[in-house]
């Protein structure tokens, strides 16, 4: 059964406390060491028990500290419930009062985005979708304009592999619900009908604040980039409040700005199939790290797993990829690119990364092979055994 209660991506919260690795002491995981049992069930995703629950955290965030114990970082960390997941906010070098205010402001901002863009709970987005389906023109707020315009551009850059207009397909697969039961996948005829209807973002016309669609099959679902957008907005809010050293980590997808007393933030990228870290890296001033994974949200039927990243060409869950991690400045495009490159798959991913202007990519295919750009290879420290095959391309 799918355990995820909301349309935004989230990952399991790490439970390990300070530990040492490779001779360097990592302390202060950004996330709290324990999640309240009351909060935990709806915010985890993945299948029942086993590795999916225990191991599938995409990212662990560590704050690198000095060897000496006395030099405690002035770090303010808080875990809040927003975007339907647990968001970890870490601030460095601010007083507690400012930090508390900043956390509240960021939480409010993210929650507003979550509600405004919810894929199925009646609200602003469902209203827009109803109007478009009825062939009407709808007036947008500046924020709606911005997010939809961004979606149009990202879809175009991805050759429509990233297709937020394909909401009907996502809904057909049952992912427009808090819990997708392990019932059969949709009928072939229904899938083919939607693939033939071929809804695309390019069929939207946005003139000023007026939006219309040439195709009634268009149904906007921003689940593939709204978390990135919300993280970008959160960082902008922090900067407005004078916070320049921070991480906003929304369930394993994050943007990190500044540093911790001149030392870079250290990020661990989780292995998609095992407990533990597959790679780690240090961020440079302002960078986002976003991952799309086949373990994020899925259901199982007759021994087969059906995940939530849908290839608009087949109308079915994309094949061949386990996870894609993107390193990129802004979180919205990192989020969208992770989804698009996941769909492009182990054979075509490089091309999609290029058209989307993404230099740093790591894709792990379903056979466990790691595919990376040379630029990503330069940035990551891999934590793999001798059996793991890696392919680095320019
Ligand atoms: P996660 O971070 O949870 O792994 P992604 O960022 O890859 O997720 O986004 C997955 C979500 O994006 C789905 O739940 C759905 O709402 C939406 N989605 C699925 N397929 C596509 C697609 N081809 N294009 C755009 N959005 C998609
Ligand atoms: Mg995404």
Task: Provide the fold topology.
Layout: E1 19-21, E2 24-27, H1 40-43, H2 50-55, E3 59-64, E4 75-82, E5 85-92, H3 96-116, H4 124-133, E6 138-139, H5 142-157, H6 167-172, H7 188-197, E7 204-207, E8 210-213, H8 226-240, E9 246-250, E10 253-257, E11 266-270, E12 277-282, E13 286-293, E14 298-301, E15 304-307, E16 310-311, E17 316-317, E18 321-328, H9 331-355, E19 360-365, E20 370-373, H10 374-379, E21 381-382, E22 390-393
Parallel strand pairs: 20-22
Antiparallel strand pairs: 1-2, 2-3, 3-11, 4-5, 5-9, 6-8, 7-8, 9-10, 10-13, 11-12, 12-21, 13-18, 14-15, 16-17, 18-19, 19-20
Summarize the structure.
The protein is of the alpha+beta class.
Provide an overview of this structure.
The chain is an alpha+beta fold and 394 residues long. Helices cover 30% and strands 26% of the residues. It has 10 helices and 22 strands. The chain has a 9-stranded mixed beta sheet with strand order 4-5-9-10-13-18-19-20-22. α3 (96-116) packs antiparallel against α8, α5 (142-157) runs parallel beside α9 and α8 (226-240) packs across α9. The longest helix has 25 residues, at 331-355. The protein starts with 18 loop residues before the first strand and ends with a strand. Residues 1-72 have low confidence and may be disordered. The structure holds adenosine-5'-diphosphate and magnesium ion. Magnesium ion is lined by residues 224-225, 292, 335-336, 338-339.
């Amino acid at each position: 059964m799918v355990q995820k209660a909301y349309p935004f991506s989230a990952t399991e919260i790490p439970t390990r406390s300070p530990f040492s690795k490779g001779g360097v002491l990592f302390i202060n995981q950004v996330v709290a060491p324990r999640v309240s049992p009351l909060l935990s069930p709806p915010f985890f995703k993945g299948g029942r028990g086993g590795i999916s629950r225990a191991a599938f955290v995409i990212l662990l965030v560590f704050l690198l500290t000095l060897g000496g114990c006395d030099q405690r970082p002035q770090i303010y960390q808080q875990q809040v419930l927003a975007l339907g997941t647990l968001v970890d906010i870490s601030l460095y070098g601010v007083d507690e009062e400012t930090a508390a205010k900043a956390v509240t402001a960021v939480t409010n901002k993210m929650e507003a985005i979550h509600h405004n863009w919810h894929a199925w709970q009646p609200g602003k987005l469902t209203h827009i979708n109803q109007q478009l389906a009825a062939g009407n023109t709808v007036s947008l707020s500046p924020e709606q304009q911005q997010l939809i315009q961004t979606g149009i551009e990202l879809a175009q850059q991805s050759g429509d592999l990233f297709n937020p207009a394909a909401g009907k397909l996502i809904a057909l697969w049952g992912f427009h619900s808090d819990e997708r039961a392990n019932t059969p996948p949709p009928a072939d005829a229904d899938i083919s009908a939607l693939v033939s209807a071929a809804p695309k973002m390019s069929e939207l016309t946005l003139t000023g604040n007026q939006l219309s669609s040439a195709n009634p099959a268009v149904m906007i679902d921003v689940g593939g980039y709204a978390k990135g957008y919300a993280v970008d907005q959160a960082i902008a809010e922090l900067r407005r409040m004078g916070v320049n050293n921070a991480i906003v980590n929304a369930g394993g997808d994050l943007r990190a700005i500044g540093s911790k007393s001149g030392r870079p933030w250290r990020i661990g990228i989780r292995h998609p199939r095992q407990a533990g870290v597959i790679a780690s890296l240090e961020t440079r001033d302002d960078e986002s790290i976003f991952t799309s994974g086949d373990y994020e949200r899925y259901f199982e039927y007759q021994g087969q797993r059906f995940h939530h990243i849908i290839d608009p060409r087949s109308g079915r869950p994309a094949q061949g990829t386990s996870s894609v991690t993107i390193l990129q400045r802004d979180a919205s495009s990192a989020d969208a690119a992770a989804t698009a490159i996941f769909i492009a798959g182990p054979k075509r991913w490089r091309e999609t990364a290029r058209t989307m202007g993404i230099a740093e990519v790591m894709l792990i295919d379903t056979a466990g092979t790691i595919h990376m750009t040379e630029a990503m290879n330069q940035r990551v420290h891999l934590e793999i055994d001798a059996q793991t095959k890696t392919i680095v391309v320019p």
